[in-house]
Design a protein that fits this description.
Helix content: 25-40%
Keywords: Flavoprotein, FMN, NADP, Nucleotide-binding, Oxidoreductase, RNA-binding, tRNA processing, tRNA-binding
CATH architecture of the largest domain: Alpha-Beta Barrel
InterPro entries: Aldolase_TIM, DUS-like_FMN-bd, DUS_fam, DusA, tRNA_hU_synthase_CS
Number of helices: 16
Structural class: alpha/beta
Shape: globular
Radius of gyration: 20 Å
Number of domains: 2
Largest sheet: 8 strands, parallel, barrel
GO molecular function: flavin adenine dinucleotide binding; FMN binding; tRNA binding; tRNA-dihydrouridine20 synthase activity; tRNA-dihydrouridine20a synthase activity
CATH superfamily of the largest domain: Aldolase class I
EC number: 1.3.1.91
Protein name: tRNA-dihydrouridine(20/20a) synthase
Strand order of the largest sheet: 1-2-3-4-5-6-7-8
Length: 352
């Protein structure tokens, strides 16, 4: 793990109505996204927002227990608060992984009950588990017995063939009885046959009112809403009805959205750096990753949206895309790319 000047200021949780002094605030979260919420993206996101709760990509129990554990769990302390998302359905294996999450310093461990991919369904991972609420409850109970970290569940409002309001309530009742108090609810059903994961994010209609009803029915539980949320204005509206919001693709493609999170959603008066300053602050981290043997392109692909909407933003993106993969490419690529975006032209809007 590399050192960071931001490390000492980021660990303390920020309490809201749904969190406790020992838990991170979930008022605003960035969703776990495969190939996207890597340590490199998370480091960037943390430089933009102190209070956002970040999630890892989903890691399966098999990968952690039988693969390169260090590689899957490696992160920089500057990323805190940080949650580990697990994929699995074997209570004993999930318990072992929950212990690892605590040993490696994560702030939360989350069980994936929302991913509709065929690849994970075949291993009883993800959204298919909504059809097995008792098994999910057993997994949650085993994880809670193995760690002092908060154990949370991310799920859909249903799956095809099990998409009624009563079945959603049965799922929540069963899992809550095992001790889970935080439910991150993607406001769509998952269709397990015939749709790709991408189509499952777009075709099933969003039913935000169902998530609002969940919070009304279970006021003692922490309910976080997820799915199709793109602006901070939308976040503020959802926060009138739920305890927190989780944003996915928009926070990745337009990371400067996060610049408005701390002042608008947490009331923070800490000055927000410019995009140029954020990237300059990240250069020592990038240099240390290059020294570890990481190729520049693996890092910079997560930075391409930083100057979204700025004059010169397309040139920034193009120059990095064309040059970061070259043999021996280093910080000079980023420094030149930054010079293509006039600092006087940079938008000062803090999120949207």
């Amino acid at each position: 793990m590399s050192n960071s000047s931001t490390q000492s200021t980021l660990k303390a949780p920020i309490q809201n109505a749904g969190s406790t002094a020992s838990e991170p605030s979930r008022r605003f979260c960035v969703a776990p996204m495969m190939d996207w919420t890597t340590p490199h993206y998370r480091y960037l996101a943390r430089l933009i927002s102190r209070h956002t709760l970040l999630y890892t990509e989903m890691v399966t129990t098999g990968a952690l227990l039988h693969g390169d554990t260090e590689r899957f769990l490696r992160h920089d302390p500057a990323e805190y608060p940080l949650a580990l998302q697990l994929g699995g359905s074997n209570p004993e294996e999930l318990a072992q992984c929950a212990r690892l999450a605590e040993q490696y310093g994560f702030d939360e461990v989350n069980l994936n009950v929302g991913c509709p991919s065929d690849r994970v369904q075949n291993n009883m991972i993800g959204a298919c588990l909504m059809g097995h609420p008792q098994l999910v409850a057993e997994c949650v109970a085993a994880m809670m017995a193995a760690t002092t970290l908060p154990v949370t569940v991310k799920h859909r409002i249903g799956i095809n063939g099990r998409e009624s309001w009563d079945e959603l309530c049965e799922f929540i009742d069963t899992v809550a009885a095992a001790g889970c108090r935080t439910f991150i609810v993607h406001a769509r059903i998952a269709i397990l046959e015939g749709l790709s994961p991408k189509e499952n994010r777009e075709i099933p209609p969003l039913k935000y009112d169902w998530v609002y009803r969940v919070k009304e029915r279970y006021p003692h539980l922490e309910i976080i809403i997820n799915g199709g949320i793109k602006t901070l204005d939308e976040c503020e509206e959802h926060l009138q009805h739920t305890d927190g919001v989780m944003v996915g693709r928009e926070a990745y493609h337009n990371p400067w959205m996060l610049a408005g999170v701390d002042p608008r959603l947490f009331g923070s008066d800490t000055p927000v750096s410019s995009r140029h300053q954020v990237l300059r602050t990240m250069l020592p981290y990038i240099e240390s990753e290059l020294a570890r043997g990481v190729h520049l392109g693996y890092i910079t692909r997560h930075l391409l949206g930083l100057f979204h909407g700025c004059s010169g933003g397309r040139q920034f993106r193009r120059y990095i895309s064309e040059n970061a993969h070259r043999r021996g490419a280093g910080l000079e690529v980023l420094e030149h790319a930054m010079s293509l975006v006039p600092e006087t032209e940079e938008s000062t809007t803090l999120g949207v």
